């Protein structure tokens, strides 16, 4: 019986050691658990940052596309200048600037003389050539800070910055002379055109619609004057 008791003692010792080892392993597992659980949080944070970056890129791309669409909607495709919508937007912004900072500017309205007979006699391709030449002439005669637009048909508008009324009328006369000097050859014939320019001075009391109407009325007055001046 004593031998059996002695023989069983090592087994009890092993059991105690095994139990201690188990408790130590369990403790280590318990201590290590938070460290293993932190990994998914780190992955989640990285993924969130990546998603935010992607959203920002998508937003910037969407804004650029919207701006491109807006610019397209406000551009005259034939002449590569502002159309009526684009010019009126720029005019409205410019008048707001004039009111806030007491700046000065002038609005010029230009109508092409003898344009319809060219379209009728030689076709729209000839008319397009005339319109392109006028747009190029206007661009060469004004500053980069000035604004040119085609309001429709053969009617153009020019916004000139920092000019007195006297200077604006002098510039209008220069534009008339530059366009009067243009010559075109259609169907073996040399054709000339002309331009009548009206002027409206912009100040702190100006409104967009009123300014356009004033420049338009002045243009028709000038057109009548040119009829009487013609030889």
What does this structure look like?
With 231 residues, the protein is an alpha+beta fold. It folds into 2 domains: 1-73; 77-229, 2-Layer Sandwich (Alpha-Beta Plaits). Helix content is 67%, strand content 19%. Strand 6 (183-186) and strand 7 (189-192) form a beta hairpin. Helix 3 runs antiparallel to helix 4 and helix 4 crosses helix 5. The radius of gyration is 40 Å and the shape is flat. Residues 1-10 and 12-17 have low confidence and may be disordered.
List keywords for this structure.
231 residues; alpha+beta; Alpha-Beta Plaits; 2 domains
Secondary structure layout:
Blueprint: H1 2-73, E1 75-76, E2 81-82, H2 84-101, E3 105-113, H3 115-122, H4 124-141, E4 147-152, E5 155-161, H5 165-180, E6 183-186, E7 189-192, E8 194-202, H6 208-229
Antiparallel strand pairs: 1-2, 3-5, 3-8, 4-5, 6-7
Q: Assign a percent range to the helix content.
A: 55-70%
Alpha-beta classification? alpha+beta
Biggest sheet, spatial arrangement of strands: 4-5-3-8
Major pleated sheet: 4 strands, antiparallel
Beta-strand share of residues: 15-25%
For the record, give the distance between the C-alpha atoms at the N and C termini, rounded to a whole number. Answer: 148 Å
Q: What is the CATH superfamily classification of the largest domain? A: Reverse transcriptase/Diguanylate cyclase domain
Number of strands: 8
Q: Uncertain runs with pLDDT below 50, 5 residues or more?
A: 1-10, 12-17
At CATH level 2, the architecture of the largest domain is 2-Layer Sandwich
Q: CATH topology of the largest domain, which one?
A: Alpha-Beta Plaits
- The tally of structural domains comes to 2
Provide the succession of SSEs: HEEHEHHEEHEEEH
């Amino acid at each position: 019986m004593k031998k059996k008791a002695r023989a069983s003692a090592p087994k009890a010792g092993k059991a105690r050691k095994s139990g201690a080892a188990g408790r130590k392993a369990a403790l280590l597992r318990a201590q290590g658990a938070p460290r293993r659980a932190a990994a998914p949080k780190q992955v989640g944070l990285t993924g969130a940052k990546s998603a935010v970056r992607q959203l920002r890129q998508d937003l910037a791309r969407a804004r650029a596309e919207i701006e491109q669409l807006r610019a397209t909607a406000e551009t005259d495709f034939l002449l590569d200048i502002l159309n009526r919508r684009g010019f009126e937007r720029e005019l409205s912004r410019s008048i707001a600037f004039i009111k806030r900072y007491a700046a000065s500017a002038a609005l010029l309205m230009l109508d092409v003389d003898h344009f319809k007979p060219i379209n009728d006699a030689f076709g729209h391709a000839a008319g397009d050539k005339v319109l392109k030449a006028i747009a190029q002439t206007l661009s060469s005669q004004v500053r980069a800070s000035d604004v040119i637009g085609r309001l429709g048909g053969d009617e153009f508008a020019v916004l000139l910055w920092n000019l007195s009324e006297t200077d604006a009328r002098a510039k209008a006369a220069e534009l008339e002379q530059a366009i009067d000097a243009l010559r075109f050859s259609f169907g073996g014939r040399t054709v000339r055109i002309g331009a009548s320019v009206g002027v409206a001075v912009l100040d702190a009391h100006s409104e967009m619609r009123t300014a356009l109407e004033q420049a338009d009325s002045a243009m028709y007055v000038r057109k009548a004057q040119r009829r009487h001046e013609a030889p």
